[in-house]
Amino acid sequence: MQIKSSTLLFGMMVILLSVGGSLIANSYLNKPKIAFVRSQDIIYKYEGTVEAMTKFNNQKQQWQANVDTLKYDFQRAVNWYNQEYPALSVAQRQQREEGLSKQERQLQSYASAISDKIKQADEEMMQASLDQINVFVEEYSQKHGYDIILGTTLSGSVLYGSETLDITDQLLDALNKNYHGE
Fold it and tell me: How far lies 16's CA from each of 2, 5, 20, 28, 181, in Å?
């Protein structure tokens, strides 16, 4: 009877080891391919973003120059009014002050509209770059067999990643080559 128990126990151990080994092998073979990228590098070193930001900054400078010109014109009108103030009648002063108030309101309204326009253009430019990057990352992931590509951020969504899992440079290189149609 003792021999049968030992044989049975040995058989059970072999079965458990086989099942356990199969599970371990299966989990190793089906292990997801995971990598991460430094999101800020991908976004700001992507040549599409660099080009878009250059165009945006040029347009922003042009808009700001228009605001600056209007501010200069208003300040010049105020200075002219202050110089002529002593020689103006009460009615002329009132008329000029109303004109200056109107000019100041128009300046503030225009500056506010330009500020809103700059903010909207910046958001649209960044969204367009992010859309391009996201489409490319999805294609890159599928082409290279990645199940998950995580993005690190300054707020710490990935607290640690082995250097071997960091594919930022490879992805950025491929993204920029794709941007130029290579």
Answer: 21, 16, 6, 18, 55
Task: Extract long-range pairs of 138-142: CB within 8 Å, 24+ residues apart.
Answer: 140/171, 140/174, 140/175
Q: Max Cα separation, the chain?
A: 128
The pLDDT value given to residue 8: 56
Q: Which residues pair with 152 in a beta bridge?
A: 38
Q: Grade residue 14 by pLDDT with cuts at 50, 70 and 90.
A: low
Helix axes 168-179, 90-144, angle to 10 degrees: 110
% of the chain at pLDDT higher than 70: 80
pTM of the shown model = 0.71
Nearest to 45 by CA among 170, 176, 182: 176
Q: Which are the contacts of 126, defined by CB distance < 8 A and separation ≥ 6?
A: 43, 49
Residue 108 CA to residue 67 CA, distance in Å, equals 9
* 88: Cβ contacts below 8 Å, ≥ 6 apart: 96
